Amino acid sequence: MNKILLASLVFLLPGLSYADSQCGPFYLGTSPANDGWSRINGDKPKTQKVTFLKQKDDYNNIKMEWVVESSKDGQMYGLEYIKRNGKAFLNAQILQASMDAPRTYGTFDCVKIK
Question: pTM for the complete prediction?
């Protein structure tokens, strides 16, 4: 299933200039304007939710959730980034308009971009 999602999302790959984490085909970074919103492949999410899993401001144990519309194809994606004890992964799903449509999703390990 990961290969299906990866193949369908290859078009989302931007340049690496702003990225600080790579999770499969997704580059996670911050805005050059430093507005407090994350950027996923350069796109600003429609929604963003941040939850600290252990204690406040513990960025080694955090969950971040986004709904983002791709500027490349207009598809909506639901993303869930989880980092525990310094290890991170990203769950991604293409959001459908119909509950009867087949789900397309995947899980990707994340690596820090230097």
Answer: 0.76
CA distance 48 to 80: 10
The 10s digit of each residue's pLDDT in 19-73 is 489 999 999 998 888 888 999 999 999 999 999 999 998 989 999 999 999 888 8
Burial 15-47 (b: 16+ CB within 10 A, else e): eeebbebbbbbbbbbeeeeeeeebbbbbbbbee
Q: Measure the CA–CA gap between 11 and 8, rounded to whole angstroms.
A: 7
Q: How many CA atoms lie within 13 A of 112 on its CB side?
A: 5
> CA-based diameter of the chain, in Å?
41
Q: Which helix (H) or strand (E) holds 39?
A: strand 38-40
Check if the beta carbon of residue 104 is closer than 8 Å to that of residue 38: no
Q: Is the pLDDT of residue 79 over 90?
A: yes
